[in-house]
Recover the amino acids of this structure.
């Protein structure tokens, strides 16, 4: 299958290794991977701030970039939700509505793609360690992806998966919310990190780099050594 | 930033810095989660029950004219006075008028968020009437001159020691750290009040159109006493409280209890269809129902957000909201706290004044997931943000967003800005966390990741090279 | 234009634009037409009377109410004598009725009857209130009372111990059946008061700790007669 990658802008700039991990896993499964360099951002920062016209202007370009793609895979529940759930709403009644819906239909979050589209649970990964999984809210509630990431992690050799008490509680990132209301965002991050610490895990894994950026940010200030890892980075290890 | 937003930010800053209080709220709610899940699981299908509840409320709210008319006509047919209040002032004036007409000396009140919304107690007190809140939690916050902290648990922010001190100061009771003793102190005070009061004021949880009855849900029995003994009963009811049929309660009563309080059913679910009827031994001589609009019809006119009127005020969205749990109920500065308050307050009190509550959310969606009537709460927060910008964009933010579009529509420019960031980041490190740091809002409390030496697109190009 | 017309006018104006129906949870469509009867989704109830009585007993006990089956009014009266002795009852409140009359006779305590009206302080000083009811609800462990079946509004909530006398044929499976029963019985002549009582009065307003007897009865006893 020919897979077109949608690499979120902050993964591109801050976590490029996660993008490479994605490529590695998909190629290992025998697929061809393509990456259109004209892509930038899904438009979520404008959308969530209420600037829907601006969000549409950015989203329009993405729609055009992925127009010919067969399948689009995105390594983020949040940007995935933007495309799958919010593009159709953003373009409701707009000339590009049909194209927006078409992109939404062929776009998959990474774990969703592996488990629900390909039916793959074991990607042949090996990663020794004790880890806990953080549900990104968008992946969990907008896309309904509670199980796929866990199913994938359960098949990783050497990995012991422990559930934290508040796996489904928001880490407090929330995009621009994190800088508009830093005190609330940080408080939420502290609750999350206490929950992570409660598991005694060495790693906290998520399918959203933005959540991990928040969690890492708080953990660093707390002087905690728990490591943050994207799901793709774990699955890429052999 | 307007005054309401500044007050909210300041309160949120104080509350989030209060680790003891934050831990207290977490603890206070921990028992609720377990009980809520236990009783949800007793349903044959909680998700299907939610679908049905949402459908029934949809039907009621989208035919509100018909059902309200039916509700009022049936109540009137059995001797109830129904007053239609277009706004808070009309409702207050009417109720003060009823109190004056009967020359009441003492008023007892059971919990009503709608009465809080119109500041009824203040109006009655200014008119010279004594009003006593009979719900234990409401009584406690009334003694403290505070608004309720939570729609359903008004005094959840207080410890038994604080309540003991309060009762000691205000009622002269002996200090105790036993919740039962504290409850009995309030019980004794309130017993005298029930017997003396000549007017009782209540809210309503549901208004049944088919039979012309209000339904009140409570645990303590205070609403039952408030509506049984005084000679006048006034119920204040938001127009959205309507349910079409009596049988709808078979679904809504257990759902309200489960979602709101983690109970299978609330202790008293009482229906009132009129004043004392011929042959009945007690009950008020007069029963007044005040139907309150107070800009609910403006929310109704917004078809996109109309379903916010489905709310049954169970408080479930507050209980799961990480914002509520970290900033507490008083920070909002609104009658209705938490996600539902952030959604409806801009409609009830002005979008520009209250839009900050819609912004103060990570949009995690825990509220939507838990809502028993399936209100898409966090999407409505997004809608409020969009509407606020449409109406009046913030100048600086508009500039940033315009720049964002300019860059994101130009991949080459975007790439160069990334490279530029890599060069600038060492400089940012020199000023990290200080006033000069452009990332200060983040870096004050959190580490910021370094921009990668090579972006993904650069690594991709290298990888592609033969 | 009066207020009623003003508000109804605003509503009609607002409803000119239709709102979409909510989506079903399993993604199979929207909630139009109305999903199946709520009974299908609510907690299950057994089909036979014996099963329902057992479920009622479990639920009532979970709600901290006392439930007891008695073979006769005589036995119920004898049992209340024990409660009266243990609780130091001096006076009870009650209404006249097919079940309350023989049981109260057996109990033989001074009483305040609410039938034709009463003085509030007299009722307040009673140690127990004895009433009948409209129905018992197995699904929730609730007692449905009404003004005529429970001696008015206050008798079942003002005294600190509420005793309910019910017959086996008053047991209904669920809330739907209970509401249906009163609708069929009263038709358009509803009493002004109906209440589902589920356990003794309670509060959790102080530190979310359960305390019984907030403002209403501290104890609830339900006696089931043949």
């Amino acid at each position: 299958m020919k897979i077109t990658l949608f690499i979120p802008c902050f993964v591109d700039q801050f976590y490029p290794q996660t993008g490479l991990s994605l490529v590695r896993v998909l190629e290992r499964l025998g697929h061809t991977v393509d990456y259109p360099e004209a892509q930038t951002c899904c438009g979520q920062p404008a959308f969530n701030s209420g600037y829907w016209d601006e969000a549409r202007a950015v989203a329009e370009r993405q729609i055009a970039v992925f127009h010919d793609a067969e399948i689009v895979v995105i390594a983020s529940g949040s940007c995935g939700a933007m495309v799958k759930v919010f593009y159709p709403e953003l373009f409701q009644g707009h000339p590009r509505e049909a194209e927006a819906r078409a992109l939404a239909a062929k776009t998959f979050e990474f774990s969703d793609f592996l488990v629900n589209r390909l039916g793959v649970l074991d990607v042949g990964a090996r990663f020794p360690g004790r880890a806990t999984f953080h549900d990104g809210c968008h992946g969990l509630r907008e896309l309904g992806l509670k199980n796929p990431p866990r199913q994938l992690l359960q098949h990783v050799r050497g990995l012991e998966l422990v559930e934290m008490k508040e796996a489904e509680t928001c880490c407090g990132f929330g995009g621009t919310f994190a800088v508009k209301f830093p005190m609330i965002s940080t408080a939420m991050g502290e609750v999350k990190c206490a929950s992570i610490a409660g598991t005694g895990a060495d790693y906290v894994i998520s399918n959203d780099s933005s959540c991990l950026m928040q969690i890492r940010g708080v953990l660093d200030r707390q002087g905690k050594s728990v490591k943050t890892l994207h799901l793709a980075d774990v699955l890429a290890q052999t | 930033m307007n005054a309401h937003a500044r007050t909210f930010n300041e309160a949120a800053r104080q509350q989030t810095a209060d680790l003891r209080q934050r831990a207290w709220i977490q603890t206070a709610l921990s028992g609720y989660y377990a009980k809520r899940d236990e009783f949800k699981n007793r349903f044959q299908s909680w998700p299907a029950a939610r679908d049905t509840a949402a459908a029934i409320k949809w039907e009621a709210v989208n035919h509100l004219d018909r059902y309200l008319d039916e509700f009022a006509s049936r109540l009137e047919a059995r001797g109830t006075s129904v007053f239609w209040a277009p706004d808070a002032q009309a409702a207050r004036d009417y109720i003060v008028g009823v109190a004056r007409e009967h020359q009441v000396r003492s008023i007892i009140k059971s919990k009503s968020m709608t009465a809080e919304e119109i500041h009824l107690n203040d109006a009655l007190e200014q008119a010279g009437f004594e009003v006593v809140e009979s719900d234990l939690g409401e009584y406690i916050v009334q003694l403290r001159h505070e608004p309720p902290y939570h729609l359903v648990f008004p005094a959840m922010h207080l410890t038994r020691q604080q309540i003991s001190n309060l009762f000691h100061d205000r009622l002269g009771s002996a200090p105790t750290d036993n919740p039962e003793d504290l409850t009995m102190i309030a019980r004794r005070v309130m017993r005298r009040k029930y017997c003396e009061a000549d007017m009782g004021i209540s809210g309503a949880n549901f208004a049944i159109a088919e039979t012309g009855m209000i339904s009140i849900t409570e645990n303590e029995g205070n609403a039952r006493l408030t509506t049984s003994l005084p000679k006048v009963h006034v119920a204040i009811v938001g127009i959205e409280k309507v349910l079409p049929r009596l049988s709808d309660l078979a679904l809504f009563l257990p759902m309200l209890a489960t979602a709101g309080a983690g109970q299978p059913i609330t202790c008293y679910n009482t229906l009132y269809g009129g004043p004392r009827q011929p042959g009945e031994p007690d009950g008020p001589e007069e029963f007044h129902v005040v139907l309150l609009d107070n800009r609910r019809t403006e929310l109704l006119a917004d078809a996109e957000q109309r379903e916010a009127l489905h709310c049954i005020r169970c408080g479930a969205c507050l209980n799961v909201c990480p914002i509520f749990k970290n900033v507490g109920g008083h920070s909002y500065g609104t009658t209705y706290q938490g996600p539902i308050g952030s959604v409806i307050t801009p409609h009830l009190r002005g979008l520009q004044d209250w839009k900050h509550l819609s912004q103060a959310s990570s949009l995690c969606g825990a509220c939507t997931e838990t809502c028993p009537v399936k209100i898409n709460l966090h999407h409505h927060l997004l809608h409020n943000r969009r509407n606020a910008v449409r109406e009046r964009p913030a100048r600086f933010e508009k500039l940033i967003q315009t720049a964002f579009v300019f860059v994101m529509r130009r991949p080459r420019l975007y790439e160069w800005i990334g490279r530029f960031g890599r060069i600038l980041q060492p400089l940012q490190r020199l000023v990290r966390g200080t006033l000069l740091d452009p990332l200060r809002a983040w870096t004050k409390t959190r580490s910021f990741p370094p921009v990668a030496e090579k972006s993904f697109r650069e690594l991709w190009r290298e990888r592609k090279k033969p | 234009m009066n207020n009623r017309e003003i508000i109804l006018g605003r509503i009609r104006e607002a409803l000119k634009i239709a709102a979409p129906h909510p989506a079903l949870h399993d993604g199979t469509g929207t909630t139009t037409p109305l999903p199946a009867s709520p009974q299908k989704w609510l907690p299950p109830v057994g089909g036979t009377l014996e099963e329902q009585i057992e479920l009622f007993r479990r639920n009532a006990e979970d709600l901290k109410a006392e439930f007891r089956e008695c073979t006769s009014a005589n036995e119920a009266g004898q049992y209340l004598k024990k409660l009266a002795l243990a609780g130091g009852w001096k006076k009870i409140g009650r209404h006249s009725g097919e079940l309350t009359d023989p049981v109260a006779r057996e109990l033989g305590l001074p009483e305040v009857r609410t039938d034709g009206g009463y003085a509030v302080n007299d009722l307040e000083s009673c140690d127990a209130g004895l009433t009948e009811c409209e129905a018992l609800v197995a699904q929730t462990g609730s007692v449905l009372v009404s003004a005529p079946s429970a001696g008015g509004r206050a008798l079942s909530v003002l005294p600190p111990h509420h005793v309910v006398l019910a017959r086996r044929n008053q047991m209904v499976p669920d809330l739907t059946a209970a509401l249906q029963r009163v609708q069929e019985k009263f038709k358009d002549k509803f009493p002004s008061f109906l209440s589902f009582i589920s356990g003794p009065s309670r509060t959790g307003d102080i530190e979310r700790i359960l305390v019984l007897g907030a403002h209403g009865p501290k104890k609830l006893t339900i006696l089931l007669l043949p």
